[in-house]
Amino acid sequence: MVTMTADVTEGVKKMAEGLIKSGLYKSQSEVVRDAIRQLAYKYKIDTAGSIEKARVILDRAAEKSGKSLSKTVREIRDEE
Amino acid sequence: MKYLDTSAFVKHYRAKEDGSEMMNKLFDDAKVGKEQLVSSFIVIGEVISVFDKWTRHKHISNDECAELIKIFIREIKELNDAGILLLEHLSTSTVTNCLDLITEHHLSLNDSIHLYTALANKDMIELFVCCDENLIKAAKTEGLGVFNPEKM
User: Fold this and answer.
1) What is the pTM of this model?
2) Do A77 and B41 touch (CB under 8 A)?
3) How far is CA A77 from CA A12, B67, B87, B127, in A?
C-alpha cells in the first residue's frame, strides 16, 4: 500500500503540474478555489441564510423521518 | 490536520444528530485556528446528494433544499477562502488509483476516493474522521488513526 500511495501522489502531482504549466492555474488549490467560485456564482450564495437555519430545517426533517444524514450518505454510496 | 469523510462532515449541518455536537466543535475550533480540516472535493457532490434524497423522499421541500445548498456552498467557500478547509481535487488518476482499495476492502467508489485522498496525505493527517463502520475498518487496516464522533 505504501508503494501505491507514492505512485498515486506522483500521478496527481503530474496532472496538477500539467495544468499549472498550461498557464491556466497557479496551483492545484487554485483549481479547487476556482471551482468553488463558480459554484458560489451559480447558487447565488449572497442570499443564503445562516447555518442555524440549515440545522433547524434538517433537525425537523430528521425528527419527522427518523433518518440521520450520516446513514443517508451510506445509503447513497450503496446505491452506486 | 483532520481528514473529514462525508459521513462525519455532513453532521455539521445538524444540531441534534449523534456526533453533530462534536463535529460542530471541530469546525468551531478550525474557525479560530485550533484545527485544520481536509477532505476530497467529492464531499460537495455527496452532501448535495443527501439534500436531494431527502427532497425526493419529501422530508424537506424543494425550496428548503435550494436554501440548504446555498448555505452549504457559502460555508464551503468561506472555509476554503480562509484556508481552514482544504479540498483535494479529483482527477482520472484519483479514480485509477482507487481501484485497488475498492477490491481490497470491498468499498464503494466514493468510500475509496476518501480513503485514497487521506492516504495520499497520510504524513499530514492526524486523524481520519468518519462515522461509517465499513470505511473505518478499511482506514484502520491501511494504518490511519480514526475518530468516530458518534462514539464520543
Assistant:
1) 0.88
2) no
3) 24, 24, 20, 22
